[in-house]
């Protein structure tokens, strides 16, 4: 068993980067209930610690089963890319999220991913229960997802199964969101804020396409036009 990393023994600049990431991740957890994406303690957000623009071998994630109104910088858990909690100043008894292994697997296997989010948002999770991809019928889907939102395999929690399913599905897609079968959406981004945005947009389009289809046939946007929408939104939209 290798020696555990001790946060207080790391270089001061890395400790400062961890503290800043803890603040960001704690703050972003409030966005999940704010946008109606979770109930009770479901869901989780993580972000990889970055120092001087370089991703480190640490990430921050919420503690398992702790009420959203009790989450703060002091109880954000620091883990290695193997999903092992370091000596991070929280009680040894404070366990990281039950999805830590999945987040860690994504960070180890998806270069450029700096944030991971998991929710059980209602409409996206209903599509996951049907194991049906959300078809690209909205310009907002072209913008954010570049096409349909895919479905990943059914996987039990507790090992690398969920993480492997996320990575294998997203590797073949432009989407930052995957609907894990019978479970719910996982989203990725360059940082945790981008992953939270993808989770918000995933639930929004899941709801809209569901309602549209209740009214009749939906019409898909041709992929060449989806590609143009995605390029504009990712590279032109907003302030620069
Ligand atoms: O979906 C699962 C596990 O996969 C839930 O337990 C999850 O949303 C919340 O778990 P944590 O509180 O992060 O341990």
UniProtKB/TrEMBL annotation:
Which molecular function GO terms apply here? aldehyde-lyase activity; L-ribulose-phosphate 4-epimerase activity; metal ion binding
What does this protein need as cofactor? Zn(2+)
Ranges for domain Class II aldolase/adducin N-terminal: 23-210
Instruction: Choose any GO biological process term that the UniProt entry carries and state it.
Output: pentose catabolic process
Q: Which UniProt keywords apply?
A: Metal-binding, Zinc
Reactions mediated catalytically: L-ribulose 5-phosphate = D-xylulose 5-phosphate
Domain of life, per the record?
Answer: Bacteria
Protein EC: 5.1.3.4
Kindly give the Pfam families that the UniProt entry links to this protein. Aldolase_II
User: Where does it sit, as one GO cellular component term?
Assistant: cytosol
**Which Gene3D superfamilies would you find in this protein's record?**
Class II aldolase/adducin N-terminal domain
> For this UniProt entry, which residues form the secretion signal?
none
Q: Which InterPro entries does the record associate with it?
A: Aldolase_class_II_sugar_metab, Aldolase_II/adducin_N, Aldolase_II/adducin_N_sf
Look up keyword Zinc and say if it applies. yes
NCBIfam families assigned to the protein according to its UniProt record, in alphabetical order: PRK06557.1 (NF005123)
Family per record = Belongs to the aldolase class II family. AraD/FucA subfamily.
Protein name as it appears in the record: L-ribulose-5-phosphate 4-epimerase
